[in-house]
Amino acid sequence: MDGGNQSGESGFLLLGISEIPEQQSILFWAFLSMYLVTVVGNVLIILAITSDSRLYTPMYFFLVNLSLTDLFFVTNTIPKMLVNLQSQNKAISYTGCLTQLYFLVSLVALDNLILAVMAYDRYVAICRPLHYTTAMSPKLCVSLLALCWVLSVLYGLIHTLLMTRVIFCGSRKIHYIFCEMNVLLRLACSNTQVNHLVLIVTGCLVFLVPFGFMILSYVWIIRAILRIPSASNKYKAFSTCASHLAVVSLFYGTLCMVYLQPLHTYSLKDSVATVMYAVVTPMMNPFIYSLRNKDMHWALGRLVRKPCQRLTRG
Hints:
Elements: E1 12-14, H1 21-50, H2 58-86, E2 91-92, H3 94-127, H4 132-135, H5 138-163, E3 173-174, H6 181-187, H7 193-226, H8 231-259, H9 268-291, H10 294-313
Parallel strand pairs: 1-3
Antiparallel strand pairs: 1-2
């Protein structure tokens, strides 16, 4: 596992956060619990929205797709992590590692792009309410979502194909919970300047540009809210975008903890930060979006009551 000088001859060892058996047992149950909560929470959000015709609006359309993305994201990483925590064999094949990397990179990009589109939806709803129906037509919503998918797929393909050019030699031990791009580049013994250059350029296009767009959208949203004369109407307008703002802050906050630093400084604390954006953020999203949302409360309540009513009648 440690030898060889060709990238495809052997796989890697995913050592995770800790190699101490006692800690691994605790981590297993912690990650399993978070995974189950994430799956159940996001599935409930999807079922609640798709079963209630009152929620057939652009905002909830994008929320369903955000929940789907989070489901795919955690399923790409956590099950393998759980197997590694319970098994003595922590190996992952070269192909398996690149496959995990592809979906990881693509889904993070997709999450980010959907959040940017949701910011535009909130901008139109608050700053141009009279034009909302025409500005956010079903055709445009589908087109925007399709564009998000195309860009994220291309983003993932570019970095995965570039990674196939990288030669790994020496240690194949990954002190991380999954095959992450920066960690893999640390193990490379070939020139990775092209990878870093493309990472910076595409990262600016896929992450910084949408982030800048979100900031600009919220500047206009705040300006529009401040012009509202009634305090109650101000609160009502802000509450419609507070959940999205909280999710964006959590997503970018944890992402910056990991990536806004030199590659050679990666340490254990970065594994913890990675857990935050890879596990905690998808788990928290359903709670954030349903916490103070009366429409979601009603839809979730209706979803839960249906089986109970059927059992009572039976």
